[in-house]
Design a protein that fits this description.
- Helix content is 0%, strand content 42%.
- The protein contains no helices and two strands.
- It has strands at 2-13, 19-31.
- Strands 1-2 form a two-stranded antiparallel sheet.
């Protein structure tokens, strides 16, 4: 799976007591490109009431 990175801005006090804003990259989600394969178990999170729209082919 490939990571979908997003930048998150947060505010906090630094060591000198000054209130500063910083931005850090965080992993927001993971995704598959068309044609990618999964060779292990996977959990798909989808909106409530929906099912993942995937095609699966066993390589056994």
């Amino acid at each position: 799976m490939k990571a979908q990175m997003i930048n998150v801005t947060y505010s906090a006090y630094d060591k000198s007591g000054k209130f500063v804003s910083s931005t850090i990259p965080v992993t927001g989600s993971y995704y598959f490109d068309p044609g990618d394969t999964i060779s292990d178990n996977a959990i798909f999170i989808v909106p409530q009431g929906e099912k993942p729209d995937v095609s699966v082919r066993s390589m056994k």
